[in-house]
Design a protein that fits this description.
- It is a single chain.
- The chain is of the alpha+beta class.
- 33% of the residues lie in helices and 27% in strands.
- The protein has two helices and 14 strands, in the order ααββββββββββββββ.
- The protein has helices at 5-28, 35-113, and strands at 116-125, 134-137, 150-152, 157-164, 169-173, 180-185, 191-197, 200-206, 218-221, 235-242, 251-257, 266-272, 298-301, 307-310.
- It has a six-stranded antiparallel beta barrel with strand order 1-2-5-4-3-12.
- Mean pLDDT is 79; it is low at 41-50 and 52-60.
């Protein structure tokens, strides 16, 4: 329709009529004279609205589902995070129980040998200062640790302190090829020197080439002058092989150390030596031999005079 004077007058008239109908409808309330027209319009346009709503609702449902999915995803992520934290806590508790067991075992050794020790934790392992088998511990000069102090754990000899910082120290392990410690055989008191061989058993040279030694014999540290670098009586290991003497002045033994050098965690630095040599008292109790069952066979005559075996 073109924009003419007549069209403008028609538009104004329609707007006036619309306002008049709205006023009459509002004032009439439930008895509004246009209520019938409204119902008729509802009857005509209602199905169309339902169709539009049916078409639109899946979209709305999809949007709601996405929103709910985000909420479920957030909750799932939260639960996974809580589970991870719980697993970490359980793992930490397991580790704490293990460390408490290590500490308890080490304190028993310290008590048996009357060693004054400073407990420490291994915080690093690896090469340091040219040594191939070392660990770093979290105690140092401020904790009373000094160079050439004996280091042990709940199993036996770990090594000796080589370098000391204010809060950390480096320990040369007993299986390092540059490591040597004086040893004494349990009971027989035969003396020797044990040297590290990396992941192989310790090599021990006994001073007595004719010493009577057998597999299963045990060794402890002999001790050093002024107890540096080694205090006496610390368990070293068990003889696993004995080389024939062959008339040599010394005798070679191979000793499996008590300490597992690849699983070090809680250790102790001996900051105070015992007042007297503990001798063999720090060694673990020997395992009791398992009795071998025997079968006894007896022969008894039966009623016919024939012999019958009984077990």
């Amino acid at each position: 329709m073109r924009d003419t004077r007549e069209s403008r007058l028609l538009l104004v008239l329609l707007v006036a009529v619309a306002f008049a109908l709205i006023t009459v409808d509002i004032r009439g309330g439930e008895d509004s004279p246009v209520d019938g027209a409204r119902q008729a319009a509802a009857a005509v346009f209602g199905p169309i609205e339902d169709g539009v709503a049916s078409a639109v609702n899946p979209v709305g449902n999809a949007v709601s589902a996405v929103r709910d999915s985000d909420e479920r995803h957030d909750r799932l992520a939260e639960l996974e995070k809580e589970n991870a934290a719980l697993e970490a806590k359980l793992g930490s508790d397991d580790r704490n129980r293990s460390r408490l067991a290590q500490l308890d075992k080490m304190l028993k050794i310290a008590g048996a040998g009357q060693y004054g020790i400073k407990g420490a934790e291994v915080i690093a392992i690896g090469a340091a200062q040219g040594f191939s088998w070392t660990i770093t511990i979290d105690v140092g000069a401020r904790d009373g640790v000094e160079r050439d102090m004996t280091v042990l754990n709940g199993d036996g000899l770990v090594g000796r302190v080589t370098t000391v910082g204010p809060d950390t120290a480096t320990v040369l392990l007993a299986n390092d090829p540059d490591f040597t410690v004086g040893t004494r055989m349990e009971a027989s008191d035969e003396l020797g020197f044990a040297s590290g061989q990396g992941d192989q058993p310790l090599r021990v040279e006994l001073l007595n080439g004719k010493a009577d030694v057998k597999k299963g014999d045990r060794l402890v540290t002999f001790g050093s002058q002024a107890d540096r670098p080694f205090v006496p009586g610390v368990p070293v290991g068990v003889v696993s092989r004995v080389d024939p003497s062959g008339g040599d002045l010394t005798r070679t033994l191979y000793v499996t150390p008590y300490v597992s050098f690849t699983k070090l965690d809680i250790i102790g630095v001996v900051v105070e030596a015992p007042k007297k040599d503990p001798r063999d008292t720090v060694l673990p109790a020997k395992p009791k031999p398992v009795p071998t069952p025997t079968v006894t066979v007896t022969v008894t005559p039966n009623a016919d005079g024939q012999q019958q075996e009984q077990q």
